[in-house]
């Protein structure tokens, strides 16, 4: 009898698994069962179809059932929901949604790729029409129809994570007035607050209303036929539709009912071959728990790239090939009204939550390419590394062009277990329209190495100690435009003559615009016997942090 | 007595060394001696000032002598040429160019950063006016003046390396008709010929005349006041000016006369602290020999990024700090009329020259981002790795947006000693406008891993063996538009039904458009007992290689 492999779920993980299974086993019978009407569609493109940036719905489909059949000999059954698994008998029960009929299918190997579903908290009014989520093609059709039929002018986006802000991007592009509600006091929860601040400022400048630090409490229909959202803080926001993007939850119902083990985060537990607690069942994608590459802890990190790689490994494992999944570092990116926001690895708050103390961070505001070449724009970059050995732990960036490149470079360094010394040595592409002789990644590394070696120790807005003096080494005109409270102005250009004006015996926390002049000043002052620190990221980072209320 | 540090040469290496020396030693006397009228200018921006893309000459200057003095207490003396070094006495002889006067200066530490000068071969007519090179600000002034005063309409660029093609970019932007002469049979000598072919095709499509595989033999003045270049092959090219960009030579005269050791490539020999054979003399930048990170051999690789890092290390060494230079991998990039060309590590021809046999390569033509998002464009990518263990050796890419990003990612992998397995696992930024769930770098890694593991071994246009059958698995209409000579067409979509039509016992070299369908076909055919290989990069790479005459 032919080996029979069933795949539950036909999107990223399921479709990739099917294709590779076929390549590794030309003879197996491979059947992909998908509850929805579509397989192998591009989840990550859905928000852009709302606004017609991706105008043609068909272009969201990567591979059709026909292509699976003709090219790969894979059978695809859409509208087929797997309702239970009998792991002992190695069968699944399938409901054919069109007829309601149920059939039993046997398997030798079963791959679960059920994904994650948008969280819909059981709040009053949650089922009112016009409160929409976005996960698949029927969802995007519903949103498009709602916008068109209702002539939506104002929308409320609840949840300011990646999907929420991608919806903001697309609704805003359609001329819809957008209000963003977020329970946390910041947008982009994966980022640290002082980095997310740049995103919030950009959104506000583009006319998006932000209501942060206040959760959604209930929904109501308004008299004019719209919707109102009342927050926990008692504020009422009105709009013609609500996009719920407050997170996703792994679809584990089927796995749980079958007796498969779940992990501590509530996802399906798998080993590094993507095998579940049942030896004939593998699971991949948003529903599984992965190992966080930085913390080594189990985590739920729903991302398309890892889902694809997990699928390859599950296929290899099923066919007896050696391959292991090495974990997820959470590299993510989002375009927000011309701004790019990206991150990889651990945020500072994740380290704090884990009780980690052995870390340092560096802030920069470098240009994306040589400033002498026209069109350079600056980005905001935060790099977090282990204080004892300089190992890279994570990075976040906000800016324009070149943010994706630096995040990819940092993601690779993190993957390879690099230290800040490696960042300093990176030999990256340099021509003036692409980068700089010292790339932002080099500068981050050099600043961190200087701190590690004690040459120019770093300090931050939230670690200026009592009794310490803030020294602003910018020129007088810069100082007068805005400076830290209590700071003394002593421009770097006069420092070699005037340093004796600085009080002896006091700790000096030195800052400039972004960090370079302060670095020079700290080096000078340390050689004159002062205990001097460089306030990383300078006035720019200081002001941003103060604005978040964290300063 | 104060420690006295002299620096010879005030551009990238010299200026960086001076600034860091000041940070590490606040008390030293630091004097920078520069023969030319400018210090700390942006070499790499010079071609763009020719065309006014960088309109303001002053913007090419990173730091002025005044800034060095006021901010850093560094003395800068322009127009001061060091004419000899007495290493025993620790003095240099300096000619003040304005007066002709010579003075002696003592040093405790000496840093040489003389750079490299454009090669001007002693050919007949080489000194005719209008045969210009580009190294510094006076050079760019001369070129600008010549173009303006002579009303240049046609220019000849001799040498199709990075600087040559940057000059093409800028001359073309000014509406000047450009002919490029190159002794080698390809443009962009650091690239392999079949990758450079894409650049040549692009240049031709933009109206640039290429004369490859024929060296310059002599220059003449024409009757109409222009210039003519006669090649070794006897072809005559006319133009209103000639830009000579056939390479640079390290400026080692001073070092050699002082008795400093040179390396096998003719550059100043330094250790990994950038110290020369004299314990009080360091050298950095284009004049020194570095260790090639891939081959481990001495090499001359004149690049601004490494020069800056070498300067930091020389400064650290002079001040007693620990730091070592780990070598150069030759990461380079160039914009050519809307195309980006980039490379890192070893080219295939460099490996061949070194007698290296243990390598394999993979070609790809991936899109820069998800194709379902508008504006995706495809690039050409070649990745070279060690066949036995998969270690990354080098990469080359030609294309539009996103080429610089992939090359930086690959450069970091190479720096970190990564294997193709690491490339396959890379977790890079994915949103549809930035990348793909499987990034080009992932795909390169996956293809290489599949080959390494014997799942889908690779073959190439130049390794199709006698008696082997080329099998084209594209659809019939694609095949009919163009295909390899002698190829049999058997579309992947029909392969599972028709594979028995393939002759038993013959090696099959399978190709499709770019490699994916062929991969599926190879996997299928191997499981039916065929010796099948995937022709890497498919018809695109095959056709490009054939066009270079290498097929």
Q: Can you lay out the helices and strands and say which pair or pack?
A:
2 copies of one chain form a homodimer.
Chain A: E1 4-8, H1 12-24, E2 29-34, H2 46-50, H3 65-72, E3 75-78, E4 80-86, E5 91-96, E6 102-106, E7 109-112, E8 116-118, E9 131-132, H4 137-150, E10 154-158, H5 162-173, E11 177-182, H6 193-205, E12 209-212, E13 216-221, E14 227-231, E15 236-239, E16 241-244, E17 248-250, H7 253-257, E18 281-283, E19 290-291, E20 298-299, H8 304-318, E21 332-336, E22 339-345, H9 348-353, E23 360-364, E24 380-385, E25 392-399, H10 403-415, H11 420-425, H12 440-452, E26 458-459, E27 469-472, H13 476-481, E28 488-489, H14 492-498, E29 508-511, H15 516-527, E30 532-535, H16 538-547
Parallel strand pairs in A: 1-2, 1-7, 2-3, 7-18, 9-16, 10-11, 10-16, 11-12, 26-30, 27-28, 27-29, 29-30
Antiparallel strand pairs in A: 4-5, 5-6, 8-17, 13-14, 14-15, 19-20, 21-22, 22-25, 23-24, 24-25
Could you walk me through the main structural features you see in this protein, from its secondary elements to its overall organization?
The structure is a homodimer of 551-residue chains. With 551 residues, chain A is α/β, with parallel strands linked by helices. The first copy, chain A, folds into four domains: 4-116 and 249-318, FAD/NAD(P)-binding domain; 131-246, 3-Layer(bba) Sandwich (FAD/NAD(P)-binding domain), CATH 3.50.50; 338-452, 3-Layer(bba) Sandwich (FAD/NAD(P)-binding domain); 458-547, Rhodanese-like domain (Oxidized Rhodanese, domain 1, 3-Layer(aba) Sandwich), CATH 3.40.250.10. In chain A, 29% of the residues lie in helices and 24% in strands. The first copy, chain A, is built from 16 helices and 30 strands. A five-stranded parallel sheet of chain A has the order 3-2-1-7-18. In chain A, strands 9-16-10-11-12 form a five-stranded parallel sheet, with helices on one face. The radius of gyration of chain A is 26 Å and the shape is globular. The model of chain A has no long low-confidence stretch (mean pLDDT 96). The interface between A and B is large, with 90 and 90 residues.
């Amino acid at each position: 009898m032919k080996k029979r492999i069933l795949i539950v779920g036909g999107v990223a993980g399921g479709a990739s698994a099917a294709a590779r299974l076929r390549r590794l086993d030309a003879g197996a019978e491979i059947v992909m069962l998908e509850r929805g009407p579509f397989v192998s569609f591009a989840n990550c493109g859905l928000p852009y179809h709302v606004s017609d940036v991706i105008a043609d719905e068909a272009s969201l489909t990567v591979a059709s059932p026909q292509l699976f059949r003709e090219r790969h000999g894979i059978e695809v059954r859409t509208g087929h929901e797997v309702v239970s698994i009998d792991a002992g008998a190695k069968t699944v029960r399938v409901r054919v949604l069109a007829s309601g009929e149920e059939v039993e299918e046997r398997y030798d190997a079963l791959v679960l790729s059920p994904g994650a579903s948008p969280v819909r908290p059981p709040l009053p009014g949650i089922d009112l029409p016009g409160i929409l989520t976005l996960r698949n093609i029927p969802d995007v059709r519903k949103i498009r129809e709602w916008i068109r039929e209702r002539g939506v002018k104002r929308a409320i986006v609840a949840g300011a994570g990646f999907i929420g802000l991608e919806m903001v991007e697309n609704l805003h592009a359609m001329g819809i007035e957008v209000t963003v509600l977020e329970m946390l006091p910041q947008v982009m929860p994966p980022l640290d607050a002082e980095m997310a601040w740049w995103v919030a400022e950009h959104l506000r400048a583009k006319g998006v209303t932000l209501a942060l630090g206040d959760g959604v409490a209930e929904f109501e229909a308004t008299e004019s036929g719209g919707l109102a959202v009342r927050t926990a803080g008692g504020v009422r926001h009105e709009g013609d539709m609500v996009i719920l993007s407050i997170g996703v939850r792994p679809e584990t119902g089927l796995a749980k009912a079958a007796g498969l083990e779940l992990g501590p985060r509530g996802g399906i537990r798998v080993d590094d071959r993507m095998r579940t607690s049942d030896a004939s069942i593998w699971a991949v994608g948003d529903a599984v728990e992965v190992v966080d590459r930085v913390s080594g802890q189990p985590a739920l990190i729903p991302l398309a790239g890892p889902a694809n790689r997990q699928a390859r490994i599950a296929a290899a494992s099923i066919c007896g090939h050696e391959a292991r999944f090495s974990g997820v570092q959470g590299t993510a990116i989002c375009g927000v009204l011309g701004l790019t926001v990206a991150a990889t690895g651990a945020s500072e708050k994740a380290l704090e939550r884990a009780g980690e103390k052995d870390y340092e961070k560096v802030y920069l505001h470098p240009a994306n390419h040589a400033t002498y070449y026209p069109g350079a724009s600056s980005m905001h970059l935060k790099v977090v590394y282990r204080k004892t050995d300089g190992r890279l732990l994570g990075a976040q960036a906000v800016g324009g062009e070149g943010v994706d490149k630096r995040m990819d470079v940092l993601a690779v360094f993190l993957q390879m277990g690099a230290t800040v010394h490696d960042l300093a040595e990176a030999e990256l592409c340099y021509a003036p329209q692409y980068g700089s002789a010292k790339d932002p990644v080099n500068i981050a590394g050099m600043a961190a190495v200087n701190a590690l070696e004690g040459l120019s120790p770093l300090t931050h807005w939230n670690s200026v100690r009592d009794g310490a003096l803030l020294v602003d080494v910018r020129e007088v005109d810069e100082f007068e435009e805005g400076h830290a409270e209590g700071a003394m102005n002593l421009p770097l250009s006069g420092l070699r003559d005037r340093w004796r004006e600085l009080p002896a015996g006091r700790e000096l926390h030195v800052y400039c615009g972004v960090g370079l002049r302060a670095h020079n000043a700290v080096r000078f002052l340390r050689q004159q016997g002062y205990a001097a620190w460089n306030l990383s990221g300078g006035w720019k980072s200081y002001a941003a942090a103060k604005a978040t209320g964290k300063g």
